[in-house]
């Protein structure tokens, strides 16, 4: 089949299309699909998911953001943001994880692994996640201990492998 | 390949023709286009069945899955 | 087997429109050479950025796609069509579409047939999330215009549908003027977009 393209039409839209991503289809191939909100059956995964919620919580508070601010920046529902931070078995879907990673400037692939969406290829992640979850607590302002715990964990996540 | 077209004459029963006409109206497609869609879908389904997969339909409330075809 | 049509891309260095080829029916060989060009560039860029400690640009969300596998998976299946945009001796974009099996969801056209974009991507050197300045722009527009024209040729009146990766939502919502039907729980929560015949006409105007 032959297709036709109006040169003037293309020229007219070139500027507004610039700098926009256009990909459509699906996420990375090695992702393990999970149903939304399905409880984690595998006990080894739990500390990771807890660490994920805690990481979101501390990263948000470090920026001085409310949960509404986080929901707005990541373009997710406030109710989901609350669930992510407080429900220890809740696994958000991949798009939500991507949006949160962007909003909080955290490494996406690690976040997908932490959140239970992707297979974990690095056993250390589990150990570090447990350590981080244990050291962080839920209080209003970030304590110095929480600060340090958060920085160390984020540094580890950003490390090149 | 995409351009060359071959012609075929079809003999359909009244019931089959009625189905073809209704689908054509509902989908706002010519009868030829309906048959073309049917062929494309049939090949897709057949391809998966040949690989050993099973075709299921799931009801709206996601309560029951029933098998559509067995090979 | 394969058809070529003339199209144009914008060369970002010169700011000029340059002639490109829209390929209908990308061959196995063309996909192989595309992968051999795209993958090393992608890997090098990611490695360079990691070394420079640059976390500002994030990798494209589809960097793990393998177009050879896709090509192989749909070989011989008449419902699928694979398109490519070639310019400056290299493939600048690829798209795989289905012409059956994906009926429309928008209420006014529910159940009607459409062209569904299974996958579409631009070359890594054109990707804004990977490089500071893209080599070519308009790849996405050319491919979507192709899908719309195919839809019209099929009698689907320009209707198309797709699931956008998060970084691409703006392009489909704003630049293509498609209807946003929200996150699809059955498709990795990706946002599902659909185009009506009216939107298709407006897009091509």
Describe this structure in words.
- The complex is a heterotrimer of chains A (161), B (71) and C (205).
- Chain A has a single domain, classed as lambda repressor-like DNA-binding domains (434 Repressor (Amino-terminal Domain), Orthogonal Bundle).
- Helices cover 57% and strands 0% of the residues of chain A.
- Chain A is built from eight helices and no strands.
- In chain A, helix 3 packs across helix 4 and helix 7 packs antiparallel against helix 8.
- The termini of chain A are far apart.
- About 11% of the residues of chain A have low confidence.
- With 71 residues, chain B is of the alpha+beta class.
- Chain B has one domain.
- Chain B is built from two helices and two strands, in the order ααββ.
- Chain B has a two-stranded antiparallel ribbon with strand order 1-2.
- Chain B is extended and about 40 Å long.
- In chain C, 31% of the residues lie in helices and 29% in strands.
- Chain C has five helices and nine strands.
- In chain C, helix 1 packs antiparallel against helix 2.
- The longest helix of chain C is centred in the first third of the chain and has 25 residues.
- Chains in contact: A-C, B-C.
- At the A-C interface, helix 1 and helix 5 of A face strand 1, strand 2, strand 5, helix 3 and strand 7 of C.
């Amino acid at each position: 089949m032959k297709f036709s393209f109006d040169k003037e039409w293309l020229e007219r839209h070139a500027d507004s299309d610039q700098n926009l991503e256009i990909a459509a289809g699906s996420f990375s191939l090695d992702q393990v699909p999970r149903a939304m909100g399905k409880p984690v059956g595998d006990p080894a995964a739990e500390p990771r998911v807890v660490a994920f919620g805690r990481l979101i919580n501390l990263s948000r508070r470090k920026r001085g953001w409310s949960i509404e601010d986080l929901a707005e920046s990541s373009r997710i529902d406030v109710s989901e943001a609350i669930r992510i931070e407080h429900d220890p078995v809740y696994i958000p879907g991949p798009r939500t994880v991507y949006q949160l990673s962007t909003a909080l400037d955290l490494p996406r692939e690690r976040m997908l692994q932490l959140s239970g969406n992707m297979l974990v290829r690095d056993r250390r992640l589990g150990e570090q996640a447990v350590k981080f979850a244990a050291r962080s607590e839920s209080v209003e302002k970030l304590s110095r201990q929480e600060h340090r715990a958060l920085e160390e964990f984020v540094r580890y996540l950003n490390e090149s492998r | 390949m995409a351009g060359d077209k071959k012609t075929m004459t079809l003999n359909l029963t009244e019931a089959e023709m009625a189905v073809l006409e209704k689908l054509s109206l509902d989908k706002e497609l010519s009868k030829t286009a309906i048959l073309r869609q049917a062929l494309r879908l049939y090949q897709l389904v057949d391809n998966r069945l040949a690989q050993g997969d099973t075709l299921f339909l799931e009801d709206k409330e996601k309560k029951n899955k029933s098998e559509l075809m067995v090979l | 087997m394969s058809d070529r049509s003339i199209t144009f891309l914008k060369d970002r260095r010169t700011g000029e429109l340059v002639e490109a080829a829209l390929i209908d029916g990308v061959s196995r060989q063309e996909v192989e050479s595309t992968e051999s060009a795209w993958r090393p560039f992608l890997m090098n860029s990611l490695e360079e950025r990691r070394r420079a400690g640059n976390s500002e640009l994030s990798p494209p969300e589809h960097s793990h796609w393998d177009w050879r596998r896709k090509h192989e998976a749909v070989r011989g299946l008449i419902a699928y069509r694979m398109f490519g945009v070639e310019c400056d001796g290299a493939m600048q974009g690829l798209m795989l579409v289905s012409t059956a099996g994906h009926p429309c969801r928008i209420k006014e056209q529910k159940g009607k047939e459409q062209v569904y974009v299974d996958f579409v991507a631009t070359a890594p050197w054109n990707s804004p999330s990977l490089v500071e300045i893209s080599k070519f722009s308009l790849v996405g527009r050319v491919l979507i215009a192709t899908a719309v024209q195919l839809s019209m040729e099929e009698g689907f009146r320009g209707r198309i549908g797709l699931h956008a990766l998060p970084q691409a939502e703006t392009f489909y919502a704003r630049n293509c003027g498609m209807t946003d039907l929200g996150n699809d729980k059955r498709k990795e929560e990706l946002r599902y977009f659909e185009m009506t015949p009216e939107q298709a006409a407006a897009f091509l105007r």
